[in-house]
Amino acid sequence: MTTSFVEQDLQAVFLQTVCRQTLKNKVLLLEAGPKDWTWKIHMPAALIYNLCDNKYNWYYETEEQEFMDNRRIYQPRGRVWGGSSSLNAMVYIRGHAYDYDRWEKEGAEGWSYADCLPYFRKSQTHELGPDDYRGGDGHLNVSRGKSDNPLYQAFIDAGLKLAIPSQKT
Ligand SMILES: Cc1cc2nc3c(=O)[nH]c(=O)nc-3n(C[C@H](O)[C@H](O)[C@H](O)COP(=O)(O)OP(=O)(O)OC[C@H]3O[C@@H](n4cnc5c(N)ncnc54)[C@H](O)[C@@H]3O)c2cc1C
């Protein structure tokens, strides 16, 4: 199967990178929903259109939330080629190291953050160049947010005060 990066889930890119480079296997993607051939998906700023109807969206709602006045909370998920990544906002988010390490402790052998980190690096080209955490020649081009709103750093500082360590991505 040959698709461009924007048509694939980030997870699928990650999986393909792992498979191509270590297992030499092919990956078959099975997905419900229509083809993704629309400007509403190809133009990232059009994301909001897909959040307002169910054409490319499962349009889920949560159960009633006891601590939110029993409201049901809207949960968009992609129902289209590319899944939710076809609806996403192009923010690069790497899972927190604690989560990977917990998964391994719970039995997912080989999925600790240290195990996954080489593949995160292989997948990434970071604008600040490669280092121990960031990649320099992968498929995902990552740049830092251009906004310098002081609230962002205040948010990170608040986490540090609560002993939540910051993590490079
Ligand atoms: C609106 C929105 C914005 C987001 N923005 C970002 C962002 O900026 N950065 C970021 O990193 N992440 C973002 N995310 C999250 C990211 O898109 C998801 O975490 C990621 O796509 C999950 O990948 P997945 O392969 O696990 O699931 P999905 O991409 O949801 O893929 C699951 C696929 O399975 C299909 N499927 C489900 N049930 C069936 C069935 N019974 N039979 C056949 N197919 C089925 C679905 O239709 C879908 O195509 C966003 C998500 C949403 C919804």
Helices and strands in order:
Blueprint: H1 10-23, H2 39-42, H3 47-51, E1 60-61, E2 74-75, H4 97-105, H5 113-123, E3 124-126, E4 140-142, H6 150-161
Parallel strand pairs: 3-4
Antiparallel strand pairs: 1-2
Helix pairs in contact: 1-5
Bound molecules: flavin-adenine dinucleotide.
Bound compounds, each kind once, are: flavin-adenine dinucleotide
Main sheet: strand order = 1-2
- Anisotropy-based shape: globular
Distance between the termini: 29 Å
| Share of residues in strands | 5-15%
Total number of helical segments? Answer: 6
Q: In terms of per-residue confidence, which ranges show pLDDT below 50 for 5 or more consecutive residues? A: 1-8
Count the beta strands: 4
Describe the structure.
With 169 residues, the chain is mainly α. Helix content is 33%, strand content 6%. The strands form two sheets. A two-stranded antiparallel ribbon has the order 1-2. Strands 3-4 form a two-stranded parallel ribbon. The longest helix has 14 residues, at 10-23. The two termini are 29 Å apart. The structure holds flavin-adenine dinucleotide. Flavin-adenine dinucleotide (FAD) is lined by residues 9-11, 30-33, 51, 76-79, 83-85, 87-91, 93.
